[in-house]
Amino acid sequence: MHTSRWRWLLTAALAAIALGLMAVGCGGGGDDEAEPAADVKQFPPDTTMGRIQEEGEIAIGVKYDVPPFGFRNPTSGDIEGFDIDFGQAVADALGVEPRFTEAISDNRIPFIQDGTVDLVLSTMTINPERAEEIGFTDPYFIARGRILVPEGSEITDVQTLAGKRVCTALGSTYEDTLREQAPDAELRLVDTYSECLELLQNGAVDAISTDDVILTGMIIQDDSLRLVGDDLTIEPYGGGFAKGDEQFSQFLNGVLEDYKGDGRWAAAYQEWLGQFTGEKQEPPTETVEDALAGAS
Amino acid sequence: MLDLLTDNLDAFVSGLWVTTRLVGASFVVALVLGTVVAALRVSPSVALARLGGVYVEIFRNIPLLVLLFIAFAGVRRGGIDITAWTAGILSLGVYTSAYVAEALRSGVAAVSRGQVEASLSLGFTFAQTLRRVVLPQAFQTVIQPLGSITIAMVKNSAIVGASLLALPDLLKEARIINSNTFQTTESFFWAAVGYLLLTVTITIVFRVLEARYAVRR
Fold it and tell me: Fewest CB atoms within 10 Å of the CB: A10, A92, A278, B215?
C-alpha cells in the first residue's frame, strides 16, 4: 500500500523534473531569433561568422566579477563593462545577439577549445603559451601588472613581497610572473579576483597582484587600498577564439579596427576607466604578432 | 598521459599528502565531536538531547562551501586570526561529525534496551553505561556506515581546496598543473587516480575492521 503510493509520488516527481528540464531546454531558442539587419554583411555558412549568423547569437565568455571589464551591475543585474561593450560591437557587426557566459581565468581556454563559447573577452593577456592553444585577436587594451596593498602596508614594491602572502587568480599570467619576480613570496591562487579582494580585506593575504585596471576596480570598491611599485609587466589583452580559424581572426581584427577608429573605443574607455582614474589613453596600435614578440 | 604524471610528480604527491593530512585531521575531529553529539542525543536529559539534535540539523543542512566561507572569511573578519588549515579541518570535521553522530545514534539504538537496564541496575551511571557498554557496541555496528562517511569526506575535501582557503590539496595541484600545461584531461585523470588511491585504501581498512570487529545480528 505504502510502497505503491511512494512509487506513484516518485514517478510524478521525476516527470515534473523531466518536464522542467525540457522547458529549460526549449526556452531561449526559436521565437526571438534576431533577423540580421539589412546593412550587415552576410557570411558564407561554412565560416564561423556564417554559422553564428545562422544561430542568431554569438556565445562570448566574459568575467562576471572584474569591474570595470566584466561585472554584474548590482542594480540591473546585467553584465556590463569594457569587455562587454566590445563583445556587443562584435555581435552588431554580425547582426546577431551576444550571449554572455561567465569564463573565469581557469576555464576560458577549455571553453574555447570545446566550443562552449565562440569568443572570449575576459581580460586575457596575449602570451605565447596561450597562443599555442587558442587564436588571439590584436590587442584591444594594454594593461600593466601592479601590486595592490592595504593602506599602511610595508610592501612598497615587488622586492618587498618576499615572505608575504600574495593573491592572484589560478590560471592567470601572474602565477608565472610572481614566481619569477617574487620567488620568495607565498602565492595564494584562487578562482576569482573577488576572492582575492575578500582575502585582502580579511587579512588572510598581504597583497594582490594583477592588472592595474582590475586593481583599480577594487580601489573603486574599497578606497583604503593602494597601488605600489613599478609596472611588473605589460599585459596586452586579446580576444580568444578557436586556434587556426583565420577567417574569424581577420573578421574580429576588422571589427576591432573600426571600433578603435570610429570613437567607440574611446567612449568605452571613458565610461569604464577614464572617469574613475582621470587618465586618458589612446587605443592600442600593436598587432597580435607585436604582442607575442614583446612577451617572449 | 604518463608524461604529465612523471613531469609533475612532486606536485601530485604533495597535493595527495595535503589531502591525506586534511582528511586525517578532519576525521579525528569528526569522530570526537560525532561521539559527543551522539551521546548528547541519546542522553536521558531532554535539553541535552535537543541540543544534540540542533547541532546535527545545523551542520548537516549547511553546504560545506558555506561553512568554509564562514569559518575563514567570517571568523577572520570577526577579528580571529584563523589559518586556512584550521578553518579547513574544523569545517570538514564539524560538517562530517553531524553524519558520524547520526550513524552512531542508529548504532546505539541497535543495542538492546535490556543491556542498558542491566547496566544501570548494577549501579553504573548513565555516562558509564554509555561509555563501557553501549558505545563500544554501537561503534561495532556502524563500522560500515563510518567507512562510507570517511569516503565521502575524502571527496568533500576537494571542496576545501577549491574554496577561498586555497589549500594546495590534490585537486588544487591538478588545477595548477592544468593551468600551466592546458592538458585538462590528463591533469584531472591523475587527480582522479589519486583520490581513488585514498578511497580504495579506506575501503580496504574498513573491510578489515568490519571482518574483525563487526557485530553480526
Answer: A278
- Tens of pLDDT, residues B64-97: 999 999 999 999 999 999 999 999 999 999 999 9
Cross-chain CB nearest to B176 (options A109, A189, A203): A189
Q: Which 8-state DSSP code applies to residue A272? A: I
Residue A199 with chain B: CB contacts under 8 Å: 73, 164
Residues of B in contact with A171 (CB under 8 A): 175, 178-179
Task: Specify whether the backbone of B167 is left (phi greater than 0), alpha (psi in -120 to 50) or beta.
Answer: beta
Long-range contacts of A18-24 (CB under 8 A, 24+ apart): none
Which residues in chain B have Cβ-Cβ distances shorter than 8 Å to A110?
184
**CB distance A175–B176 less than 8 Å?**
yes
Q: Could you tell me the domains of chain A?
A: 4-140+238-279 (3.40.190.10), 143-234 (3.40.190.10)
**Nearest-5° angle of CA B116, CA B118, CA B124?**
75
Inter-chain touch A175–B180, beta carbons under 8 Å? yes
- Render pLDDT for A265-277 as a digit per residue (tens, 0 to 9): 999 999 998 887 7
Residues of A in contact with B176 (CB under 8 A): 170, 175, 189
User: Three cell numbers at A256?
Assistant: 576591432
CB contact under 8 A, B179 and A175: yes
Q: Is the pLDDT of residue B113 over 90?
A: no
Contacts (Cβ under 8 Å, ≥6 apart) of A252: A90, A119, A137, A239, A241
Q: Residues A212, A227: contact at Cβ < 8 Å? A: yes
Across chain A, mean pLDDT equals 88
Say if residue A21's pLDDT is above 90: no
The Cα–Cα gap between A20 and A14 comes to 10
Contact pairs from chain A to chain B, CB under 8 Å = 41
Cβ–Cβ of A202/B76 closer than 8 Å?
A: yes
- Report yes or no: B187 and B4 within 8 Å, Cβ to Cβ: yes
Asked whether this complex has an ipTM greater than 0.95, the answer is no
**List of residues 6+ apart from B141 with CB closer than 8 A:** B106, B107, B110, B111, B214, B215
